[in-house]
Amino acid sequence: MLEGHCLCGKVRFEIRGRLGGVRYCHCSLCRHANGTAFSANSSIRRENFTLISGEEDISEYESSPGARRCFCSNCGSPVFSRLESEPENIRLRLGTLAGEPDVKIESHVWVGSKSNWFEITDDLPQHDEGAGPLDIGTG
Hints:
This protein is mainly beta. The protein starts with a strand and ends in a 30-residue tail after the last strand. It has one helix at residues 28-34; strands spanning 2-5, 12-15, 22-25, 39-45, 49-53, 58-64, 67-72, 78-83, 89-93, 105-109. The chain is globular, with a radius of gyration of 14 Å. The protein has one domain (2-113): Metal Binding Protein, Guanine Nucleotide Exchange Factor, Chain A (Beta Complex), CATH 2.170.150. A hairpin with a 5-residue loop joins strand 7 (67-72) and strand 8 (78-83). A seven-stranded mixed β-sheet has the order 6-7-8-9-4-3-10. Strands 1-2-5 form a three-stranded antiparallel β-sheet, with no helix packed on it.
């Protein structure tokens, strides 16, 4: 089991099972939402994600049609996102995990819109746009 929380600790969660594949997303929406060059996201089954506390502190923002970014309304930490077209999955922000998960980074996505002040120096595959569905974590 993995545990995680937002910066202030009001939103706490547990994850059962393994995390899915991880991608570094360089799209402008992720950069603005996280204040960084990219976000690190893993898709997991919603049934494997349990909010332990802070459900009332989760706010959502629809950043594009059908895509909702979920964050702590107290400290602003992005916790996960969800797509209305995939109600059974969420995309967890890995920076919220309390421990070091055993994950495999798959690729960089939306590199065609990445910031010019960040240089990708690893050998992971790069995609100008998205790269299809992520491997979903299982129980």
